[in-house]
Amino acid sequence: MRALHGNGADVTIADVNAEKGQALASDLGLEFVACDVREESQVEAAVQQAANTGEGGLRIAVCCAGTGWAQKLAGSKGPHPLMPFETILQINLIGTFTVLRYAATAMIANDPAEDNERGVLVTTASIAAYDGQVGQIAYSASKGGVVGMTLPAARDLSQYGIRVNTIAPGLFDTPLLAALPEEARQKLGAGVPFPQRLGQPPEYAQLACQIVENRMLNGETIRLDGALRMPPR
Question: Is the Cβ–Cβ distance between 196 and 227 less than 8 Å?
């Protein structure tokens, strides 16, 4: 959001964490709307607010909503319970689908710009879509679904001049990893072929901005992982 804002975009921040989202919006002087991607009405309201911010309607939508769950398919305690699997899919996959369909509908109403483009949709998968580890069956299934939606979504929306691309990050220095001891964080970063460190949020933001700027980039999932291929464990 900082990167898009810094490049001149009128940005609306939508987040399930109202406290942190509002703090960031206030810091940057932006609009904020509370949004749980599992709630269709909240996604619809967030898209509408974004479309009414600034001029020209909603032109860019970046969806980063996601969470994880670590558990094997089956084990000594029995089968993987259905509820957490459904919850991960509800947030990571169905939530992303809901953002895509409402944002795309708003973009269809835009006046065409250069190359008759009306908008760009950027979703977030993970290298776990390809290299799912032990205990990542729910997370990998959800992120694999995001990758699988990318090309057909781009094809569905091509007649309207709307592009769809996905970023599949590797090990990034997110709040989830920030909770780990520093020694563990250093070890994770050292396992990345190059650069041997955790990815930084501004590097994700840089790629998102590059996707927005390059109109030939469409229907693609881009791994952002320093050539990392995750081992089974």
Answer: no
The pLDDT of residue 30: 92
Name, in order, each residue with C-beta under 8 angstroms of 57's C-beta and a sequence gap of 6 or more: 51, 106, 107, 109, 110, 111
Q: Is 171 left (phi over 0), alpha (psi -120 to 50) or beta?
A: beta
The model's pTM is 0.95
Quick one: which of 19, 12, 51, 54 has its CA closest to 33? Answer: 12
Residue 145 to residue 152: CA distance in whole angstroms: 12
| CB 231, CB 133: distance < 8 Å | yes
Query: Residues of the chain whose pLDDT is less than 70?
Result: none
From 132, 221, 120, select the one nearest 168 (Cα to Cα): 221
Residues 12-27: tens digit of each pLDDT:
999 999 999 999 999 9
Catalytic residue positions, numbered: 139
Q: How far is CA 129 from the centre of its chain?
A: 13
